[in-house]
């Protein structure tokens, strides 16, 4: 979810569900955990009478994703250095 939001300013619940190929329940729980951690912001609105839920990455979420990617790159470099 964080990776998807890192390349787009905002994504709807429907777009994220399609991207991640997950269920409504799994995405809802995952989104809530990231929201509680301060990594994503949930924006609710209406398009006409239809509810619309969007998510965007927060600054804390972007920093956390960048730290995670740095760690993964370090692990990959270390593993390749041993081969």
From TrEMBL:
Name the UniProt record assigns to this protein: Transcriptional regulator
InterPro entries: WH-like_DNA-bd_sf (IPR036388), WH_DNA-bd_dom (IPR027395), WH_DNA-bd_sf (IPR036390)
Domain Winged helix DNA-binding: residue ranges: 2-76
Source organism superkingdom: Bacteria
Segment forming the signal sequence: none
Pfam families noted in UniProt: HTH_34
Higher taxonomy: Bacteria, Candidatus Eiseniibacteriota
Organism annotation: Eiseniibacteriota bacterium
């Amino acid at each position: 979810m964080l990776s998807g939001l890192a390349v787009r300013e905002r994504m709807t619940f429907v777009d994220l569900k399609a991207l991640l190929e997950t269920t409504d329940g799994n995405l809802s729980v995952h989104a809530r955990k990231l929201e509680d951690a301060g990594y994503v912001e949930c924006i609710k609105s209406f398009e006409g009478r239809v509810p619309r839920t969007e998510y965007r990455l927060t600054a804390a979420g972007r920093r956390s994703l960048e730290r995670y990617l740095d760690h993964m790159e370090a692990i990959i470099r270390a593993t390749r250095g041993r081969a």
